[in-house]
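2.7 Reproducibility. Because tokenized structures are sensitive to small changes in the input, we list the exact sequence used for SPOR domain-containing protein, including any N-terminal residues retained from the expression construct. No trimming or masking was applied before prediction.
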Amino acid sequence: MIGQRIVYNGQNQINRYLEDPSFVSLNGEYNMSAIIQASDTDISNTSQYIAAQLSPFDNVAFGLDYSRHSYQVFRYSQMFFNGRYRLNLGNEFHYINLGASIGIDRLNEDRSSRENDLNTIYRLGLHYTNFNLTIGGFLNNYALQNDLSNTSLDPFTNIEGYTAFLSYRFRISDSFRFSPMARYNSYDELDFFEGVANLNYKGNYELAVSYKDNYSLNAALSGRFLKFIRVSYSYESAIGDQVFNDVHSVGVSIDLRPKENEIPEWLANVKRNREKIKSIKKVKEEPAIAVEEPNTEVDDTIVENIEEIDPVAEAEKAELLKYPVMTEEAPSDIVGGKLKPGYYIILGSYKKVDNAEKEIERLRANGAYARYGKKDANDDFNYVYVDRYEDRDIASKRTLAKQREKGFERVWLLRIK
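Resulting structure tokens (single pass, no recycling of outputs):
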């Protein structure tokens, strides 16, 4: 969960909001994290972290971090209030995130006059993302412990420093994402390059390995269990000219998202499909209308690439009026317990029939008619659809037109063979 360590704050590669405020609640998370960090030594060197984050709006998020640290004769605590603003640059894959944190650092030193010594600390972060590419950096002003040896005369100082990074995410498969990253860190006299490799499996399990030139080797592992709980472990060991004891971290994060705000199954599927579509190279001669999904839960489907279709001309709109929309009077599309062949405009997919029926009732209450069905007897999903057509071209145009209606912006096209 955290590669951050006692010696040098700011080396986390999994929960990056702990060091860079531009990552606070990046994916709309509502959660609280608790981390304990300890040095592999007889000296009592420990840190404890509590961090909460929430995203009340699509482009605005907030967070609150509190930490306590023990280092030989030093005891200090820090509290940050974090804010993030997202500036969209055309679509959900192209944006800029701006983040800022401000807080207070309180220091106590045994047998000295440094009692409740207060300092203002801050963090600034910015990153630009264009689909898989992310470029950014963050500036920090906080307490730095630059040495864990007993001979250090002044192991505790407040400094400014910055980190710049460049990363690119590779889609290995529907389940795996691999993200290499290069970082340059500059804090006090600690200037070093860093290479990071991050492997993510279905968003639930994550492994990060960081190699810091002439500094340390750091590995962190995180896993989600029981849907709302994430546990983690991190290990860091000094290399090169650095001399410090091994540092271990364990953490627990609890998802605080209310159930009514949890992303539904159909929207998760649509986002995954839209991501896959975005990664497919455009063909200028003949824009792809649909993309086959061979190895996903929605097998053998066609997902409509709405963003790549040119605007429908007025003449085409008039032509669509020749094809009536689905009504209660239309014959059933279920043949032999499954949907008959054709092109279906899908609003959502649900594993539970009750959820599909509730969605249909909600649509009816708002004046819209819909039905649901399965591809075959072995299909796990019940697809809620608002129209069906035999002709692919008409179905594609209808899907585009439907997306322009309020409440149907995320409909997509499913082909049943």
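The mean pLDDT is 77.
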